[in-house]
Design goal:
The protein is an alpha/beta fold and 370 residues long. The chain contains eleven helices and 13 strands.
């Protein structure tokens, strides 16, 4: 279950690819929650399937349900409103969808994506204690400013999950660890190397940016003006062409996944222009686009905070022209070398379902560290 995604949306994340693999192994129910009339004001990616809410649908072999309520709980960002915030979460938790309860009873494995989905752990555990209950930590709850109710709920119950599987070991500091915390990173399609042809580019050197998360257009302004001989391709940023972009910048809207692979595979440099250096450090490991860049051995330009331990990344200070130019120049000169092993979705799903079978996934408690 997830509060962020629906299997039927065009935009796909890791949970979609995991559901694909699970569907090849058996029956899958994909429950999407925290959706209401309030979602329209947040530009929720599920708005395109609003008319399909509150009914079970089959989509590519997966049963899907988008639970739409009149309102949903959210972080009200004020201590004065905390009693009201807690009350709305309590009601949402204790008045669950009938479909959620029915699917929880039937499941062999229940996967809770980070966010508010784990508030239903106690219900699901009571309805189906024989199931495996697995937390998929895509984000640190404090970092994404999740409501205090959700954070305290996870802190209280973390030790009772069969496994807590985090995208990055860098997320483990804020997770109570009772020996059940593991690192299960993102993966990629096993046939990815065979995709992405022919090249969409003309001659010359090309840098590509994918996605809208924390996108910083100022980076494109600085880099495109400093490197007029290179071409910059900005895909799915959520913004049109902006003042200051050089003539060497091409802006695209949202693009199908398979098409973006062409632009990554044949680029010279991958760009992750996050708007601030104060971004989650675990993005160094968990970012799907940087994983794709690494798969195709692209030198990557990103803020210093998310270079991680990867030699193929070149860090800069957001908004600092000199550091951006230095990082971009170094990336354009760098060799193309993959800097980490990369799992496919079969391997990721195996580790998610049974991380204890893969010793390399274990994140040690401080007392266990040698």
């Amino acid at each position: 279950m997830t509060a962020h995604h629906d299997y039927r949306t065009a935009r796909r994340s890791s949970i979609h690819f995991i559901a694909d693999e699970l569907a090849r192994r058996g029956s899958v129910q994909f429950f999407s929650l925290r959706y209401s009339a309030l979602s329209r004001h947040k530009g929720d990616i599920r708005l395109g399937i609003d008319t399909q809410a509150n009914r079970i649908e089959q989509h590519k072999g997966v049963e899907c349900y988008l639970w739409k309520t009149p309102i949903h709980p959210f972080n009200m960002r004020s201590p004065l409103l905390r009693p009201l915030e807690n009350a709305t979460f309590w009601l949402y938790q204790h008045l669950p969808s009938r479909v959620l309860s029915d699917w929880a009873r039937q499941a062999d494995v229940i996967i809770y994506e980070s966010g508010i989905a784990p508030i239903y752990f106690e219900l699901a555990k009571r309805l189906n204690p024989a199931a495996r209950h697995i937390y998929r930590g895509s984000d640190d709850l404090a970092t994404i400013n999740a409501a205090r109710y959700a954070r305290l709920n996870l802190d209280r119950l973390a030790g009772e999950f069969d496994a807590l599987c985090l995208l990055s070991a860098r997320m483990a500091d804020n997770i109570p660890n009772k020996g059940n915390v593991h690192c299960v990173p993102n993966g990629l399609d096993g046939d990815l190397a065979e995709l992405g042809d022919p090249s969409p580019y003309s001659t010359g050197r090309h840098a590509v940016s994918i996605g809208s998360m924390l996108f910083d257009p100022a980076f494109i302004v600085i880099a495109s003006q400093a490197f007029p001989e290179a071409n910059f391709h900005v895909i799915g940023s959520g913004l049109g062409r902006l003042p200051g972009y050089g003539d060497n910048v091409v802006v695209y809207g949202d693009m199908a996944y398979a098409e973006t692979i062409r632009y990554i595979k044949h680029a010279n440099v991958g760009l992750a222009p996050y708007i601030s250096d104060n971004v989650p450090v675990y993005l160094a490991d968990s970012s799907l686009k940087m994983l794709q860049y690494d798969f195709f051995a692209l030198p990557t330009v990103c803020p210093h905070s998310v270079t991680g331990d990867y030699p193929g990344r070149f860090g800069y200070i957001p908004g600092h022209a000199e550091s951006i130019i230095k990082a971009m120049g170094a990336a354009l000169r760098a060799p193309h070398e993959r800097s980490r092993p990369i799992l496919n979705w079969v391997e990721v799903t195996d580790r998610l379902l049974n991380p204890e079978h893969f010793p390399e996934t274990k994140i040690q408690r401080p007392a266990e560290t040698i």
